[in-house]
Amino acid sequence: MYEHMTFENILNRMLDRVPNNVDKREGSIIYDALAPAAAELAMAYIELDVILNETFADTASREYLIRRAAERGVEPYPATKAILRGVFKDSQNNPFDVPIGSRFSLDDLNYVAVEKIENGEFKLECETAGSIGNQKFGSLIPIEYIEGLVIAELVELFIPGEDEEDTESFRQRYYDSLKSEAYGGNITDYIEKTNAIQGVGGTKVYPVWNGGGTVKLVIIDSEYNAPSAELIDYVQTKIDPEANGGKGFGIAPIGHVVSVVGVDEVPISITTNMTFRNDFTWEDVKDLVEEKINEYFKELRKAWSDQEALVIRISQIETRLLDVPGILDVFDTTINGEPTNLVLGADEVPILDVITV
After folding, report:
1. Can you tell me the distance from the alpha carbon of 333 to that of 314, in angstroms, rounded to the nearest whole number?
2. Average pLDDT over residues 271-290
3. Residue 224, number of CB atoms within 10 A of its CB
4. Per DSSP, which regions of the chain are E strands?
């Protein structure tokens, strides 16, 4: 708004107000008197521009966007810690119980035992918040010596950790809060409340799915995979504990009997024909091809909660494969044996099974 209020323009305006019979050349007394004031005014206009941008949600930086959104009770989701399954055994390969609070390390991350699942199996919480806690599995090393413990392994992700909500996602959520009002258990309310639970990446709501007062929530985890049974149980307990269904002991309003289920993963087999450069073979490009397809499928899974149904398109598969170095042409592609696009069910998401060339 104040782009034209530069030092030169301000100084010229000030000098224009001085009579022409006064020396106004650079180095003159009047020029040297006005120039510092013009510089300060130019800085003030720059600050005014910054203040103006910080006033509106579409141009505000993260700090001031948070303050703006707080007026509507919208706050960025904080980073959360991953919950994983650890398996422990003694020298005879028998299950071994470690003390609650025991700490273990894997590479540069530390984990703490927080809950016993069964003999020799415990829930471990990553001490570092964020999605980094979802990525590592393998042998654990106890930080303090535990007598009798021989084998300690991190084997499964229960509830994904999440990074702090990024600025643009938070900005969009603020805009969404202005477009539709969440109130007393309507669809928007269920989506907002469920997505705010740790480990949930998206939600579809089916009201009155099994008669009056029933609600079904279908969720995908924050890594955009089918949720674990532990995550489903965790969300169920938060929303409407099964033991007290419809009684208002969770987030759901009194009278709403809520069922939480996960998305169904559909294995996708792709068969295609490829023409390679002379110095390339299928083995040379296989890993990159799988990476491209997995990226495409993850994009679809990310969009699942906003779509009525996902469509896997042959054109998208072939276009992405043509980006792989060494592949000259792709043709006659089929998905699960059919030469047509595959439309999944409303609660289905794709995962790659096998690629045949």
Report:
1. 7
2. 93
3. 20
4. 83-89, 103-106, 109-118, 121-126, 138-139, 141-142, 151-159, 200-207, 214-221, 257-262, 264-276, 311-312, 327-335, 342-343, 348-356
| Pick from 302, 61, 69: nearest CA to 167 | 61
Handedness of CA 34, 39, 44, 46 (dihedral sign): positive
Tell me the helices (H) and strands (E) count for the chain, helix number first.
8, 15
Q: Positive or negative CA dihedral for 321, 326, 329, 332?
A: negative
Beta bridge partners, 106, equal: 109
Type of residue at 242 = E
DSSP assignment, residue 198?
A: T
For 124, residues 6+ apart whose C-beta sits below 8 A from its C-beta are 83, 84, 85, 86, 104, 111, 112, 113, 114, 154
| CB-based burial, 300-310: b 16+ in 10 Å, e otherwise | bbeebbeeeeb
Give CA 325 to chain center in angstroms.
29
pLDDT at residue 141, rounded to an integer: 95
List, in order, residues 6 or more apart from 60 with CB less than 8 Å away: 53, 54, 68
Collapse the DSSP code of 63 into the 3-class scheme (helix H, G, I; strand E, B; otherwise coil) and give the result. Answer: helix
280 forms beta bridges with none
Q: What is the pTM of this model?
A: 0.78
pLDDT in tens, 340-355: 999 999 999 999 999 9
- Kindly state the helix (H) or strand (E) to which residue 22 belongs, with its residue range: none
HSE (side-chain half, CA atoms, 13 Å) at 170: 25
